[in-house]
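EI: anyone free to look at a 376-residue chain?
SC: sure, send it
EI:
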Amino acid sequence: MNLTRRKFSILAGASTLAGFNVAHAQADKIILGQSAAFTGPAAQLGIQFHQGAKVYFDQVNAQGGIGKRLIEIRNLDDGYEPERCAENTRKLIADDVFALFGYIGTPTSIAALPLATKDKVPFFAPFTGAMALRDPFNKYAFHVRASYNDETGLIVKQLTSLGLKKIAVFYQNDAYGKAGLDGVTLALAAQNLKPVALATVERNTVNVAGAVKTLVAAGPDAVVQIGAYKACAAFIREARKAGYGGTFYNVSFVGTQALADELGKDGAGVVVSQVMPSPYNTARLIAREFVDAAKAAGNAQVNFSSMEGYVAAKVFVDGLKRGGAAKVSRESLIAGLEGMGSQSLGGFSVSFSATDHVASSFVELSMLTGDGRVRT
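SC: here you go
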């Protein structure tokens, strides 16, 4: 292609200006990339986590940011589908975001993590407890929540201590469901037990009729559910209509408040394991802090999912500060997080080191009430 001298000068000037704008934007902001479900049957998980994180980041920004740089989350909707998540991740990395933050789900995070690792982009606080994202150790992956093995271990311990040993598993037919199933199977095997029946649901669907038929026929004492709120709610309703009188246990990813909202009075007695302190019980300072911040923001709901976003943002900012606010880089963030050691965030313990990027193993059980509330 032939270029006149004038055209070349214009193009060169435009390139220089574009480079200046990019550098200037990066000097002014710390831009995080988040691919999550913001539409579809898992949308509340992405919406609530994002809201909670933004509450904390907005507080930090109101105080001048980090080294006078404001924190911004650039979020893209993946509908909880791995292919869309991978596409979003490539776009965010190409846009040179500082880090990837708050991805929602196991199959999506599994699609994204290799891309982040390849380009040495920190992958922080995915909303998943899957062991596949934790083992083997990855320098660029940092987990704020406990694992699904931690959650299912507590669920199985609770059930068997009550003398309930006939345990069935209803799980999403993908990497998330299988991660939860593995946790249940592992915990049962430690007591020389096995699931009495298994049944699946496809991701982003509520086609549960076959699963209900299979599991109700097995007559389990309890059904452990590894799914998102719409499918799990549909299963509970249909199982009860079919005459099932046992109990239902869910892991935290279900989206506790979203599940309660879906079920209404049908939620009474449904148990959900939690990896965050209860935002409904202000005995812990972190819960009081979050509730006050959410109320002050005026545009964030108070629930477990938004609380997790808030806590993730708080840990992230702590890592940035420890790495040196004056000269923020991906490497300084990693160094800051790894140098954190053991800390208490208002009664919620977190710990990172150079060899351990899983901050917490905290798990407790909660129960839905018939009026849409959550009791811990």
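EI: The chain is about 45% helix and 15% strand.
SC: 👍
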